[in-house]
Design brief:
The chain has 128 residues and is mainly alpha-helical. Helix content is 66%, strand content 0%.
């Protein structure tokens, strides 16, 4: 069963806006809708990792905390993650993991084109 995109989008928006309690609730709903496949496991663990990284915004060594929302950089990241998510040579777990990152980059790009990840501008958010 495919994951409802509304849950994924909402999860990333809440996590980006530092609403971690609601993010956790949405993450649980996402997990309940997932199959037990390796792809799903990779996707879910990527979501947990992104949420954990956003919670710990003071760690300058965490990848997500070093991201600056820049259209060119995001286009490159999205292309690289997409390539890995669709590469049939990659293990299913890895493809799920990178698919979550593709979704994260797309949501961040669509909701916030000029702010850094740590300081989102919620007034500019639009539904995806």
């Amino acid at each position: 069963m495919p994951l409802p995109q509304i849950f994924i989008t909402r999860f990333f928006q809440l996590a980006q806006n530092r609403d971690f309690a609601e993010s956790d609730r949405i993450l649980q709903k996402i997990k309940e809708k997932m199959s037990g496949s390796e792809w799903s496991r990779g996707y879910h663990l990527a979501l947990e990792g992104i949420l954990l990284a956003l919670r710990n915004k003071d760690d300058k060594y965490v990848f997500v905390n070093r991201l600056e929302v820049n259209k060119e950089k995001f286009e490159k990241l999205e292309a690289e993650f997409y390539k890995r998510a669709k590469n049939l040579i990659e293990p299913e777990f890895d493809r799920g993991y990178f698919a979550a990152w593709v979704d994260f980059i797309r949501v961040v790009k669509s909701t916030n084109s000029t702010q850094s990840i740590e300081t989102p501008n919620t007034a500019d958010q639009k539904p995806v």
